[in-house]
Write a structure and sequence with these properties.
The protein is α+β, with helices and mostly antiparallel strands and about 950 residues long. The strands form six sheets. The protein has a six-stranded antiparallel beta sheet with strand order 13-12-11-16-15-14. Strands 2-1-5-4-3 form a five-stranded antiparallel beta sheet. Helix 23 packs antiparallel against helix 24 (about 845-860).
Length: about 950
């Protein structure tokens, strides 16, 4: 065995090394030693002896040896004698508690400390060879006795580089010196003799004399790893008892507490030591204690553990009943002998209360689920009130009534009720589970259908006034003992009052019952309010449907227009529901026309309102003369804000409008899917001068074009994303339309139904346009009669336009150089063109306005100047230049010499404006033709009015 340097204990008298520690004779150490030897059941239950069983003196000394000798620190002085020797002495002396001289030999029962530390011994003869080898040595070193006897321990266990030092130490030992220390041990493999596991062992070598007087030695060996394990077990035991958040007990075989932790003591009072020796009868009521005692005995006898055993009792100083969940399992000594029971408990009083609350909540949820399934199946107010009473009687109460405001029932649009809660109500439902007993808890009985009101100071009027439930005092001698008056509130509006009563013998209403009553009344109120809103929507939808139908065929420059709008009515089963389909024809400056067809997804009043908002937005954006793709981009922003709070979906209230919708679309929000508005739209701008049409599409069906002498075809316009989706740009496609061509815009209701897929409907629509030369009204009727347009599932919008370009003789177009003389030339060109059109009454006014616009183009514009006159139903004059700055009209002061040109244009023209072009801007004005219906303003008077 190679030595880890340790200080040897030398003595002139060899017998000094075998002398016992005087401290072992201390009588106070006897109980400690007895516990360490395993005589106490609770001590063995920890797995390595209970250090707290006595005063702790000997137990601490018994565990300190591994700390000193197992540290492996050079120069650490070992105790003298070693811990194993002191434990052996203490155990023997503690058996009877007598001094060493009077100690009696006795055998330790199974489960002593030596079962844990595994002390091994062997002896060395005078020749330095092993002459005796114990069974424990065989177990520790793995070498049988027949091989060990006669073995040189130095050659067998010490590394070759330390054998010389080992031989010297062996000579000193045989010379009469005792030695103790911690040495590394190499355990040979008994199978093949190779190197085994290396470890540390505490060795105590005592010199002895053989029978013939020769010097010999006895070696006592303890595996240091076992001592470390015992130390760890003790630390774990202390941690469990000292730090566990649960109540922890060790109960011995006599069902007495051997040890308790701080948590248990904090609940039942005192210190952990105060609970030693107590039984379950000291903590629990008699009946509960008997049950627990029987369970403890069964665990001790059978070894079957108990999990989550519920125990009920009281704690000192409190009369409140407490509940605990306890886990029990049997503990054993090192030899496997049952020595007691471990008790682990946790207070579950709050959990039990929560479980009761959960059970009550489940009952309430079941009632709410039943209410959700049974209330609101009808849109009739009285039926909904009766459905509420069918749910609550008798499952929740014994009697119940429902009163609704009279104004609500007659369709009054004003807010129902009065601020003082005394408005007229009508009793619409009554139910009783007590032999049809009348409801008299709030005064004299009121018959179903009767109109009444509650006094101002009554609890019912207070509930209506404050929108909060109130308890109604019971009448003395009456049948009812507890009544709740609950206002029926829907969307912050009180629509009526529900009363729930329980008769004598039933449990009075509690706070949980009050909350449940409020929830039931609220659900019924929402259903009643839905019925009211449906009736209002029914009436408004009819009015809106009539207002959205076009009054007649619109008129546009260079186009012959015909249109049809059929609301879905037949198959939907709800004739008043309009959809979101719309079309529009918008006149633009320069004898241009915008054609619009769109469809808001969904039906009903919300879809119709959204359609109205989008239709208004389209007309507004069209007047700004934006490009078609830009118009759809702005519409997309508006559509994204339609479902926002305060947006156009609430257009009937104050604050609605396009600007608010656009702002709402830009705010980040988590929109409810039911409030998301999507729409498809195709927007086309037709120029009657060039007969070119620019299309932009937002997820709509493609336009259909029929050229003269050709078959109908669907234009390839990129569909884009629907309005309201956002994030994607829109593309434009420009198409030149030949004279007499037919253009058709439509919605999906025309070509799609449940019986006819979209592809089939499109082919049928294209096939129906076989004779485009017929009058447009006849073409529209033919299409509607040919296709399946009577399904009633969706609205149908159809807009057809025949191209009639502006004749060349109706257009005057000139390019002017950027010089002052161009003003005079412009006046000359305008005068000559008007005279050729026989419009002499417009010459003076036109010359004056043309002069103003061309002068502004020279002063503030850029590039060449272009003058164009267009004659159709009105006279339009346009001045083009390459500048990007738009003219802005302002009011000139009396002392200003200029700044009145645009004011003069506004006074003399029917309309004027400016728009951006791809290469600059265009400023235009429009004059009505002299047909006798419109009188022209006198230029002289207009000039004088400016000063």
């Amino acid at each position: 065995m190679s030595e880890i340097p340790a200080k040897a204990t030398e003595s002139e008298d060899p017998s000094d090394g075998a002398r016992g520690d005087d401290r072992a004779a201390d009588p106070s150490a006897a109980p400690v030693a007895a516990d360490a030897a395993g005589t106490g059941a609770g001590a063995a239950g920890t797995g390595a002896g209970d250090a707290d069983a006595g005063d702790g003196t000997s137990a601490d000394e018994g565990t300190s040896a591994p700390d000193a000798r197992g540290s492996g620190v050079p120069g650490t002085p070992p105790p003298n004698p070693p811990a194993t020797a002191r434990a052996l002495t203490a155990t023997a002396l503690a058996a009877e508690g007598t001094p060493p001289g009077d100690a009696l030999w006795q055998s330790s029962p199974p489960g002593s400390i030596y079962d844990y530390i595994k002390v091994a011994s062997f002896s060395i003869g005078a020749d330095g060879l092993v002459d005796q080898w114990s069974v424990r040595a065989e177990q520790l070193f793995g070498i049988p006795a027949d091989r060990a006897v006669g073995m040189d321990p130095i050659e067998a266990f010490v590394d070759p580089d330390r054998r010389a030092e080992g031989q010297r130490k062996m000579a000193e030992i045989l010379d009469g010196r005792e030695w103790t220390g911690v040495v590394p041990v190499r355990l040979p493999d008994p199978v093949d003799g190779g190197r085994g596991v290396e470890g540390l062992a505490e060795v105590y070598v005592m010199p002895t004399r053989a029978e013939g007087g020769e010097k010999a030695a006895v070696c006592i060996v303890v595996d240091v790893r076992v001592l470390r394990s015992i130390e760890t077990d003790l630390a774990a035991s202390q941690a469990i008892f000292g730090q566990s958040p649960f109540g922890f007990l060790l109960i011995d075989a006599e069902l007495r507490v051997r040890r308790a932790n701080e948590r248990f003591a904090s609940i039942f009072g005192g210190t952990p030591d105060d609970h030693r020796g107590k039984g379950v009868h000291d903590y629990l009521p008699r009946g509960e204690a008997e049950r627990v005692s029987a369970t403890l005995r069964r665990v001790l006898e059978t070894g079957d553990s108990i999990t989550d055993m519920h125990i009920t009792g009281f704690v000192p100083g409190s009369d409140d009943r407490r509940h605990w969940s306890v886990n029990l399992y049997r503990v054993h000594s090192g030899s496997g002998r049952p020595i007691g029971i471990a008790w682990l408990g946790i207070d579950i009083t709050a959990r039990r209360a929560a479980a009761r609350e959960a059970a009550a909540a489940r009952r309430n949820l079941a009632l709410l689920n039943e209410a959700g399934a049974r209330i609101g199946n009808s849109l009739d107010l009285e039926t909904t009130a009766r459905e509420l009473l069918d749910v609550v009687v008798p499952g929740f109460c014994d009697l119940a009534t429902v009163d609704l405001y009279q104004g609500l029932l007659v369709g009054d649009e004003t807010p129902p009720g009065l601020p003082d809660g005394s408005a007229e109500l009508r009793r619409v439902a009554f139910a009783s589970a007590v032999s049809d007993a009348p409801f008299t808890g709030t005064g004299k009985p009121v018959a179903v259908g009767a109109v009444h009101h509650y006094p101002f100071n009554s609890p019912c009027a207070d509930a209506l006034r404050t929108a909060r439930p109130r308890r109604v005092p019971a009448e003395e001698g009456g049948l009812v003992q507890s009544t709740l008056a609950v206002p029926m509130v829907a969307h912050d509006t009180v629509v009526g009052l529900a009363q729930f009563a329980r008769t004598k013998g039933s449990e009075p209403f509690g706070d949980r019952d009050r909350d449940l009553a409020v929830e039931l009344a609220a659900r019924a109120a929402v259903c009643i309010d839905n019925a009211r809103l449906y009736r209002r929507e029914h009436e408004r939808a009819l009015m809106l449907q009539r207002s959205l139908l076009p009054p007649g065929d619109p008129v546009a420059a260079g186009l012959d227009i015909a249109c049809r709008y059929l609301p879905g009515s037949v198959a939907s089963g709800r004739p008043s529901e309009v959809g979101g389909d719309w079309f529009d024809v918008i006149e633009l400056p320069g004898h241009r026309t915008a054609l619009v067809v769109g469809d808001v997804m969904g039906r009903g009043l919300r879809a119709a309102v959204a359609m109205g908002e989008l239709r208004t937005a389209v007309r507004t954006l069209a007047q700004l003369d934006l490009e078609p793709a830009e118009v759809l981009s702005q519409l997309d922003e508006i559509a994204r804000g339609l479902g926002a709070p305060g947006g156009p979906a609430q257009a009937f209230g104050p604050g609605g409008g396009i600007q608010q919708a656009t702002r709402a679309a830009r705010r980040p929000r988590e929109a409810d899917l039911s409030e998301v508005y999507l729409a498809t739209c195709v927007y086309a701008v037709y120029d009657s001068v060039t007969r070119r049409c620019t299309f932009a599409n937002a997820g709509h069906l493609p336009p259909v074009l029929v050229e003269p002498g050709e078959a109908a075809l669907m234009l390839d316009v990129p569909p884009g994303m629907p309005l309201g989706v956002g994030g994607e740009p829109f593309e434009e496609v420009e198409v030149e339309l030949p004279e007499g061509a037919l253009l058709a815009l439509y919605t999906d209701g025309l070509v799609e139904s449940r019986d006819h897929p979209l592809d089939e409907g499109l082919q049928a629509f294209v096939g129906a346009l076989t004779d485009p030369a017929r009058p447009l009204e006849d073409v529209c009727d033919h299409v509607l009669n040919t296709l399946d347009t009577h399904h009633g599932e969706d609205d149908i919008a159809l807009l057809m336009a025949r191209v009639q370009g502006l004749p060349a003789e109706s257009v005057g177009d000139w390019t002017l150089p950027r010089e002052p003389r161009s003003v005079g030339r412009a006046r000359e060109y305008a005068r000559g063109q008007l005279l050729s059109w026989d419009l002499e009454p417009l010459v003076d006014t036109t010359e004056l306005l043309v002069s103003e616009l061309v002068t502004n183009a020279l002063r503030y514009g850029e590039g060449e100047i272009r003058l164009r006159l267009l004659l159709d139903r009105t006279l339009v004059c346009e001045v083009w230049d390459a500048g990007l700055v738009q003219p802005r009209r302002r009011r000139a002061r009396d002392t200003d010499e200029g700044g009145r040109g645009l004011q003069l244009v506004g006074l003399l023209s029917a309309a004027w404006g400016s728009r951006r072009t791809p290469r600059g801007k265009t400023v235009w004005f429009e004059l009505p033709l002299p047909d006798g219906e419109h009188s022209l303003a006198d230029p002289a008077e207009a000039l004088l009015s400016l000063f």
